[in-house]
Amino acid sequence: MDPAPVASEVCSPGASSLLRLTMVDGLGPTLIARAVRAFGSPERVLHASIRELSHLQGVGDKKARQIRRGLDDSERALRDELDLAHSLGVRIVAQGDPDYPPLLAETPASPPVLYIRGTLDPRRDLFGVGVVGSRRASHYGIEQTDRFSLALAQAGLTIVSGGARGVDTSAHRAALRAHDGRTVAVLGCGLASCYPPENDELFTQIVDAGGAIVSELPLRTGPSPENFPARNRIISGMSLGVLVVEAPLKSGALITARYAAEDQGREVMAIPGRVDWASAEGTNELLKTGCAAMVTSPRDVIDILENAARHAHAGTHAARARGLSIPGDDEGLFTPEASESREGAAGRATVALSERQRSIYEAIEDARTLDELVETTGLEAGAILADATMLELKGLIARRGDRFERRCDSRPN
Description:
Layout: H1 4-10, H2 15-22, H3 29-39, H4 42-46, H5 50-54, H6 60-88, E1 91-94, H7 102-105, E2 113-118, E3 128-132, H8 139-154, E4 158-161, H9 167-177, E5 183-186, H10 200-208, E6 212-215, H11 227-237, E7 241-244, H12 252-263, E8 267-270, H13 281-288, E9 293-294, H14 298-314, H15 317-321, H16 336-344, H17 355-363, E10 368-369, H18 370-377, H19 381-393, E11 397-400, E12 403-406
Parallel strand pairs: 3-4, 3-7, 4-5, 5-6, 7-8, 8-9
Antiparallel strand pairs: 1-2, 2-6, 10-12, 11-12
Helix pairs in contact: 1-6, 2-6, 8-9, 8-14, 11-12, 11-19, 17-19
């Protein structure tokens, strides 16, 4: 059956071909972007030969054969996906489409396609703030999430969070209480699932209020742990800055903060927590090391984001995020000099690693890209990014451009 009639209802123009690429094992956002640049269009990638695919950086003969098999199987998978999207009322937008979030589009490894239940508003959602924190937040953390999110939504900012328990849920609910408030939930599962299940009603309320539930994952994808670190880059990528409310040391919120600062040039802010609470150790560490600006009121957040918002409105935000010189721009929190200073102050103590972290560390004997680490370790990209962030926080590795490399002044147990 021709998928065109269904595609026209659920897909924006040109999304179908990119969607097929995302359904192929071995093709992640970085490699898809590289392939599209090399071949000129998603359609040409779909018809590429094994020999042509093998010439792509990071592919080779074995992987090229795997990708070609996946491309051959993707047409049937596309029909099934489009039918399911239609039945769920889900739209699919691709990079370059008017409804694709403009701030996210300018970030590295941005998703080729997004699944959307509800409505993204490129004009209003241009001024978003990510609100992240612990799933097991304290009463204080929930209280401050509610206070900040309500005020920021009332000020016209879109509250972007991950739909999870704890801080995320509180942020979404507070935004819904604001007059004309907007909120977007970015899930770590496909939109045919609801995770956590108790938030089904909340997600419906978000959609009914004009907001959106968003995912980059195929519709039937379950809430597997390795999906969440990659999901975090979408939260920060859709936002002018990220507010970390309460986070322990090993927290997805810290991964979001690192994505925001290091990879995407976003502002990072944190609310200080009690010094004797494990749930606030990560937040306080961000403040102590200068990786986040301390905020104690919603007004502080608005003041910090004002310059970024001005550039977003003027169309110069991408240049600002890349650290390019812009006349009249204020000095950012995360200049290269500040980054070097933070790295110089990183702890040099001997630290213990998990088995997966050790395998990643050992694979970075020479500087490696994410794609090279996927090929070397056999791990999924999301898992590598999560553990690479922990290795960075432990001071063992550093990111230089698109490569990871060991720090010479630290070593694991």
